[in-house]
Amino acid sequence: MNADLALHNAELVTPAGRVRAGVAVRDGKIIAIGRDADLPAADETVDCGGRPVLPGVVDPHVHLGGGVPYEELCETESVSAAIGGVTTLVQYKRSATSLLETFEREREIAEAHSAFDTAFHFILNSMAQIEEIPQYAERFGVRSFKFYMGGYSKGNPIGLVTVSDADLYEAMARIRELGPYARCMVHCEDDALVEHLTAKAKASGRNDLAAYGDSRPGFVEEQDILRAIWLAELQGCPLYIPHTTIGAGVDAAREARRRGVDVVLETCPHYLALTQDDERLAQQGAGVGKVAPALRGEEDRLRLWEGIREGVVRTIGSDHVPLVKTGGALWEEKPGFAGLATMLPVVLTEGVLKGRIELEHVAAVMAENPARVFGLYPRKGAIAVGSDADLVVVDLDTERVVGPDVTRTKYTSAFEGMALRGWPAITIRRGEVQLRDGEVSVRPGSGQVLRP
Fold first, then answer.
1. To 10 degrees, the CA torsion angle through 355, 361, 366, 368?
2. Rounded distance, CA 448 to CA 111, Å?
3. Spatial contact of 358 and 352, defined as CB atoms under 8 Å apart
């Protein structure tokens, strides 16, 4: 029986190394890996031109919501995902009431409108929701739950709610009982310090991006990282810290892991590539670079790359937020920006092509590790027989200046106007070519909702 698709003349990249080999695909799965001449005949053959082929990117940190209908975002951001080589998303979902009442409909919308495969985390904000954690896991398969230790004042326009240490303590007691792939996820910015320092920064009259950084400096993140690790160690609960920005976080996680604490650090492309004194961002308006936690300085940026090389920073997430930014008033602008289309090119440009990491590191932190952490491996995150045929052919020579014509989204990128080198030439999700040489052909509703 023929394969549906075969990739020839490729350099397959996994965390274990690189190999010159081809891949054959049938019914959305990898059925053979080997010399091109030894692969089964295929209905379609793609010559990769000797370029690297990575596992499809598994993005563990995506927000699709806000003032735009969810079904619209599932469709438009499927295009950006294909542009960026992202084949699997893990999205955050939250509710002002019980997710038992709201999530079923959102899951149906994702199935009907997405062209990417997706799993979910829940953001919880009350003891009532915490008490429902076992039901969320049993009914929906969701085992990763995020909590905000601070960073957002009461009545904030995003609607995020800060939890207490008592909430975290009780949540961890429930999460640790859920079995494999259960994680307590914590947004680490100390509530009282952010409130106090934000008031001081606003009173100063400053409107530059560094003023926003002063309102939530690195030590407010460090304090909560240390406290979250302490609580997780006390409760014996696996911990996941998203969007780590500081070298001190890498140090804290390294020490905790030596003591046997199960803690995973994630960082984001913008913390690896940008700093709060970025002149390009300043010219666009301070609000464009506003994100929580804030952009840091050069020392923290370089220490995050060291954390990836050491294996302490185990995942990279885009923290994709579909916002249209004005570049106007700093304190009124919402935090966040779109990142699906650029996350892989940023890591290739700033990491691989500048000699900070190897392609094998990319395969680890952007595919295999997030898939393992959240229970999707080896279906996702692997180039292996039996795995989903999620593959990205990378062109390390192609350079593009980031803009809406490149990202294919109206939502603002923190990298607009920046030249990035190393873009997906072909994106394949479950054997279906979604991007080929700049042409996107995603099918809304072809994505699948995954359970760990």
1. 170
2. 6
3. yes
Closest among 57, 30, 28 to 369, alpha carbons compared? 57
* Residues 189, 191, 193, 195, CA torsion sign: positive
Give the DSSP letter string of 180-199: TT-EEEEE---HHHHHHHHH
Measured between alpha carbons, how far is 52 from 356 in angstroms, rounded to an integer? 18
CB 374 within 8 A of CB 90: yes
Cis amide linkage into residue 40, ω under 30° from 0: no
Q: Which residues contact residue 96 at a Cβ distance below 8 angstroms, ignoring those fewer than 6 apart?
A: 159
What is the tens place of the pLDDT at every residue in 402-441?
A: 999 999 999 999 999 999 999 999 999 999 999 999 999 9
Query: Rounded to whole angstroms, how far apart are CA atoms 58 and 452?
Result: 13
Calculate the alpha carbon distances from 348 to 85, 344, 345 in Å. 12, 6, 5
Which residues lie across from 421 on neighbouring strands? 399
Structure tokens belonging to residue 251: 């140090």
Is the separation of the CB atoms in 66 and 92 below 8 Å? Answer: no
Q: Which residues contact 245 (CB under 8 A, 6 or more apart)?
A: 218, 221, 267, 271, 293, 294, 295, 296, 300, 304
Q: 394 near 361, Cβ under 8 Å?
A: no
Tell me the DSSP string of 31-48.
Answer: EEEE-GGGSPPEEEEEE-
- Record the pTM: 0.97
Say whether 25 sits in a helix, a strand or coil.
strand
Q: State the Cα–Cα distance between residues 245 and 221, nearest whole angstrom.
A: 8
Residues 42, 3: contact at Cβ < 8 Å? yes
Q: What is the pLDDT of residues 186-237, one digit of tens each?
A: 999 999 999 999 999 999 999 999 999 999 999 999 999 999 999 999 999 9
